[in-house]
Specification:
The protein is an all-alpha fold. Helices cover 80% and strands 0% of the residues. The chain is globular, with a radius of gyration of 18 Å.
Length: 197
């Protein structure tokens, strides 16, 4: 892991407990489908990295996976059961993406598989943030986007298989930050009844 990748990992390691605390105490409301898929990806990735002899970075990956599982548990506690059931469809394409990721021999195909799975997890959180922009902390998502920029810069081999996932993570994190930030005033305005003249 280069020093740029290490900086990105440390940033993520620093903000993840903050997100967890906000999920447990409010006002953050993580989407259970998103965090269920992300938790599965993190755990599978940690186990696969360990099996491949990932070295010292494996400890960080396992810590991140544990935090993801804890956020998923917090999401289940605050979830609306009806909404969650109606929005559970991403689980199926995500499972297909994970299968492609684990079974593909080609690095680019494997990367497309994991990006597909992650994007399926991302969609419920993005749509929830559009409806309820204060349910996601825009600053933390923006910081995560910066962390993934470091991950992009740390890639040693510039090719689609190496860059696709960190670039996707950068764009998706910054998009949620932007939606959460820009939609706040608009949603308040839509929900505020007109004042009588």
């Amino acid at each position: 892991m280069s020093w740029l990748g290490a900086v990105g990992a440390l940033i993520l390691l620093a903000i993840s407990p903050v997100y967890l605390r906000r999920s447990l105490r409010g006002p953050t409301r993580p989407h259970p489908v998103s965090w269920g898929i992300w938790s599965a990806l993190a755990v599978v990735g940690a186990i696969a990295n360990h099996a491949a002899g990932g070295g010292g970075a494996v400890d960080v990956i396992f810590v991140m996976a544990a935090i993801d599982v804890a956020i998923f548990a917090a999401a289940l506690r605050v979830a609306d059961a009806k909404t969650s059931a109606r929005e559970a469809w991403p689980v199926i394409p995500a499972a297909i993406g994970v299968a492609v990721w684990l079974g593909a021999q080609d690095p680019l195909a494997a990367t497309i598989g994991v990006v597909t799975a992650d994007a399926c997890a991302y969609w419920p959180t993005l749509t929830k943030t559009w409806r309820e922009p204060r349910s996601e902390p825009s600053l933390l998502w923006a910081i995560a986007g910066v962390a993934f920029v470091f991950a992009c810069a740390s890639v040693s081999t510039v090719d689609p298989a190496s860059l696709l996932y960190p670039v996707y993570l950068t764009v998706s994190s910054l998009l949620i930050a932007a939606v959460s930030w820009t939609r706040r005033g608009r949603v308040v305005a839509l929900l505020t009844p007109p004042q009588p003249r």
